[in-house]
Amino acid sequence: MSLQSKINQVIKNINRMNTIEKNSVGVIRLKKHEKNPIFSPNPDNHWENIVVCNPGVWYENGKFTMLYRAAGDDEEHYIRFGLAESSDGVNFERMSNEPIFSPSVDGPDMGGVEDPRIVKFGDEYYITYAYRPFPPGQYWKFAHDVILLPESGEDTPLVYKKNIANSGLAITKDFKNYKRLGRITTSNLDDRDVILFPEKINGKFAMLHRPKEWIGEAYGTNKPAIWIRFSDDLMVWEEESTLLIAGREGTWEEKVGGSTPPLKTKDGWLIIYHGVENGGLGYYRAGAALLDLEDPTKVIGRLEDWIMEPEHDYEIEGYYKGCVFPTGNMIIDDTLYVYYGAADKYIGLATCNINELLDKLKKSK
To answer: Which alpha helices (H) appear in the chain, and where do they start and end?
Structure first.
């Protein structure tokens, strides 16, 4: 390397450090709970003896209800949901030694159910979840984005041939008995991170989703991104989607997706989302954005920096090394609670003052 090249590299490093220092001034971070991970695999239950993560959490009448993703050490890696409850949001007790919601025997979600997100309309809880028609296998032993595929013929539908992940809708009144309403995404798209808004907006239901194949010039994004769309019916999503939040090249969030259900605040809809560095191959971190209350296609605030990242062993050493993946949240008094999967193996809790976060978002561009 020539002397001038070395000088240029030094200048580049100094500028980079100055940028990092500038971006670190006044940033807001979620505080990890001292008892994290607050929920861990249960070696006594075969269906959850290696994985519990990515929980949907609902708070009502002083009780926290957690619907969590779980898996055992079977080679196929079937994924199910377990149920736990808590009075303080930290110490959760399992409500059953059996899964509370499992893959169907012969339906479209017979390969596994994943990542529940919970909202409530009337007296019923609506749960969006991702599923596959065939179990994915122990994916951490495969190359990135490689999963098990079923035997198939020339005319086998793409959704089964490629074991594409779709998203479904289920309803319950008690978190013990469920009705599966079916698929709410297009079968030939890997469309996950499907999350409902908790109320109608201008007379319509609203949904966040992340179609993996919607990339390229025609879609306005080079990596999978967060889209929003509306409907008159929770099972019929045919209106055109709008690109809401796209990734930023060369940052912690090159690839993005929705994480937790939107929370209505006085300043706008609060969105906690996830971002992935290195073209979608690196660490998973969490970010925050604010949407207009009356027109949530408008992003009125978005933090440049992440609010949570993998930093502890339980977030780094697991089945995805370096991942915090929020899926449940609520505001209690002035505190934002965020529940997240850690390294695809544990469940953690992080909090912050909601007013401080909203203030930062209102000042962001």
So the answer is: 3-24, 158-161, 313-316, 354-363
Average pLDDT over residues 85-104: 98
Residue with token string 């949570």: 308
Give me the helices (H) in 38-140, please.
none
Residue 25 burial (CB < 10 Å; 0-12/13-18/19+)? exposed
Instruction: Please give the distance of CA 87 from its chain centroid, rounded to a whole number.
Output: 24
**For residue 46, which of 67, 73, 68 has the smallest C-alpha distance?**
73
pLDDT at residue 23 tops 60: no
Q: Which helix (H) or strand (E) holds 141?
A: none
Task: Count other Cβ atoms within 10 Å, centred on residue 199.
Answer: 12
Q: How far apart are CA 72 and CA 51, in angstroms?
A: 7
Burial of 18 (0-12, 13-18, 19+ CB in 10 A): exposed
**Residue 69 burial (C-beta neighbours within 10 Å; 0-12, 13-18, 19+):** buried
- Specify the pLDDT at position 365: 65
Burial bucket for residue 155 (CB in 10 Å: 0-12, 13-18, 19+)? exposed
Answer whether residue 296 shows pLDDT above 90: yes
Rounded distance between C-alpha atoms, residue 266 and residue 358, angstroms: 9
- Distance (Å, rounded) from C-alpha 349 to C-alpha 329? 10
Residue 301 CA, distance from chain mean position: 20
The per-residue pLDDT for range 326-347, each reduced to its tens digit, is 999 999 999 999 999 999 999 9
pLDDT at 12 over 50: no
Show the CA angle centred on residue 296, arms to residues 114 and 267, nearest 5°.
Answer: 105
Contact criterion met (CB below 8 Å) for 80 and 50: no
121-140 pLDDT tens trace: 999 999 999 999 999 999 99
Cis peptide before 261 (omega within 30 of 0): no
